[in-house]
């Protein structure tokens, strides 16, 4: 073997070793980051005993994604079981043995839903709290009241397994948990009248930012399986999906059927079990709001 070839192979081996060491270090840093303490100031929302809150809480639970992720019975379900090693089983948030919320006090509900943090101060890795951080106190109290009223049954805490490459990306910040995305200093949103207008639509559309991005321009959803399609651009910009939905009725039909106006199917990555529960007022309001967004290119999130 010539010296040049020998040195080349030695160089490749050194680079491979260095790469493996770097990757291993990144994985370790990702695991450490998952255990970090997140210190936020939590303002409790008192439990409500208003019977009128339960119907509103049920509507929010079913239409804002809670039932989609945790099951309509609240007992958790397998949300992702991907061949690449990503596995997510959501926890039970219904009363009963094994419930993740057993013993939750008012501040714990706020910490988890609005801030994406568990009672011990650790980030909830998959919980999309950015979607709920701006929920007003009245809706928040109604949602919690309904969750606490669910029928008791056996459940289990969350199970989340990240493959090694995702741990490395998480360490680097390419994948973020909700606790890292949220501005925890912001107060909850003030209540606005429920109406088919832009103001209420902006409030409802907060439920979309976890997938479509803070600017609602869509793109690949960080941390999700690679085969998932990019989230659609909901702004009027380049590559917008909204050109298909010039009326709110067309948007509502897609949400309730899973099909575009031309009859083609939308990916079932969309939370259709929740979207189908949205009432006409909310859909009309969201449609009105999306038409006012500044234009962005698809993927700018």
List keywords for this structure.
three-stranded antiparallel sheet, globular, single chain, mainly alpha, 301 residues
Strand content: under 5%
Overall pLDDT confidence = 88
Give the count of helical stretches.
Answer: 12
Cα radius of gyration in angstroms: 22 Å
Describe the structure concisely:
The protein has 301 residues and is mainly alpha-helical. Helix content is 40%, strand content 3%.
Report on the structure:
The chain has helices at 3-34, 53-63, 66-70, 106-115, 137-149, 164-172, 178-181, 198-204, 209-212, 248-257, 272-275, 280-290, and strands spanning 78-81, 87-89, 159-161. A 3-stranded antiparallel sheet has the order 1-2-3, with no helix packed on it. The termini are far apart. It contains 12 helices and 3 strands.
What's the structural blueprint in terms of helices and strands?
Layout: H1 3-34, H2 53-63, H3 66-70, E1 78-81, E2 87-89, H4 106-115, H5 137-149, E3 159-161, H6 164-172, H7 178-181, H8 198-204, H9 209-212, H10 248-257, H11 272-275, H12 280-290
Antiparallel strand pairs: 1-2, 2-3
Helix pairs in contact: 1-6, 2-5, 8-12, 10-12
